[in-house]
Predict the 3D structure of the following.
Amino acid sequence: MILALRALGVGDLATAVPALRALRAAHPDRELALAAPAWLAPLVDLVGGVDRLVPATGLAPLDRPDPPPDLAVNLHGRGPQSHRLLAATRPRRLLAFANPDAGHADGPDWRPGEHEVDRWCRLLHWYGIPADRADLALRRPPAGPTPAGVSVVHPGSKIPAKRWPAGRFAAVARALAGRGHRVVITGSADERALAGRVARRAGLAPEAVLAGRTDLGGLAALVAHARLVVSGDTGVAHLATGYGTPSVVLFGPVPPSGWGPPPERPWHRALWAGEQGPGGPEGDWSASAGVGTDPVLAAIGVGEVLAAVAEAEQAVRVAGAVTA
């Protein structure tokens, strides 16, 4: 059995997809278990190739598998806590970044500021497992009860510094509706009040507010069949990347060089108003936590977002004309 650890959120899982696919391809006859939060189960099913989800809560101890895994793979962090967590499952071999503090001298060095997709692909390459950073596609679920062809505006983020002002999201939503888009406002149950404010200021009907009304599987289906996604640097943006849905993603304080969509895809537009985040070239959301929107993110204007929407939609039209 192969045990991979990625006990984080939606975007974290989405950026680990190429690494998980590489492990599946390298070991087609072994069970691939993923240690991740149980609430991510619908998205794990859409990754494909993962045989079993091992519920994980942060870096709390995991149930020891019996027999122990042949291979444990740290796709969570640099250690030492995550290294020790996997070592406690008694694997025959641990694939991880070098961390002498955890007693793990093997593996490549950690590179601050590296794109999250490239980071885990490079780790596996170091151990002789080829990984394709472009292998990001998620399985497309049926539309089901969720509306298809809508434009998703997602104003929330669990990190206050990564929330673009609600009034600007409302202005974008109003302009999109004026251009003929069928706009919906998404978010978690905790963000329903925020989504409602955005919808009211945008002049949208109450039924346009889907925050708190979709589970993770429903949100994935919504994005998979959407016309457009506009959001901050959060999980919904990574779902748009996984489904190739045109998107405009607003970054700050962390730049798109760390978490952005593939730059070779012109239908994904990453907006960034600075050369580096407030914590250095890598950006540092903690430097702005608790003080509202980060200044780098706040420097992005409504006009820039709407121009990026036009560019993304034009890129879709050009791609369609080329393949027709």
